[in-house]
Amino acid sequence: MPTTVITGSAGGIGGGMAKAFYDRGFNVVISDLNQTLLDERIKEIAGANAEGRIHSVICNVTDPQQVRALWDQAVQHYGQIDYWINNAGLGVPRNIYTSRVSIV
Fold first, then answer.
1. Which of 8, 72, 74, 95 qualifies as a cystine partner to 87, CB 3.0-4.6 A?
2. Rounded to whole angstroms, how far apart are CA atoms 72 and 69?
């Protein structure tokens, strides 16, 4: 069974990708900064039927040691990683009509 690791996956697009991979039979490792949100995402995706196919790891992707630990925990849990999706990031909402844009 293939394994996917998705950073920034406690919600939003990352959470949606985690559900899509899980629904297609993948092992899924979700990661984010907040364990409570990760636990909630697992319940939303798998409910009581996780069957060991979804796992969470707290990870701040700005810290290389935490990213390495995420990799190591995923491999330890599932034996291999087939897909790694870097989704973590912060969005800053802006009004396109009032924002200044410079073209380089």
1. 8
2. 5
